[in-house]
Amino acid sequence: MTAPEPDLRRLRHFVAVAEAGGFTRAAASLHLSQQALSSSIRQLEKDLNAELFTRVGRQVTLTRAGQTLLSEGRVLLAAARTVAEHVEKVGASTAETF
């Protein structure tokens, strides 16, 4: 059985929580409610079948799975941005030829 692919929006949410060190600051930076952000992370954990954070009160720390996703997820998000930029450039240049 192959593992599901992470949703890029949820992956961005995960990286924001990991970098902010908590849901409150990450939610503010993403302009989301804390509840919406928590729900997004829970769904990502469900999709990947892995707990990504250890939660103790308001403190969150990355699990080993979370550490792996953070390092590899940053690369994936950077690649997604690069693809979007390349497609946009090609799209802009081909639009002129029509």
Structural class: mainly alpha
Main sheet record: 2 strands, antiparallel
Average pLDDT, rounded to a whole number, is 92
**Fraction in beta strands:** 5-15%
Strand order of the largest sheet: 1-2
> What are the low-pLDDT stretches, counting only 5+ consecutive residues below 50?
none
Q: Give a count of the beta strands, DSSP E runs of length 2 or more.
A: 2
Explain this structure to me?
Strand 1 (about 55) and strand 2 (about 60) form a beta hairpin. With about 100 residues, the chain is mainly alpha-helical. The protein is built from 4 helices and 2 strands; from the N terminus they run αααββα. The model has no long low-confidence stretch (mean pLDDT about 90). About 70% of the residues lie in helices and about 10% in strands. A two-stranded antiparallel sheet has the order 1-2.
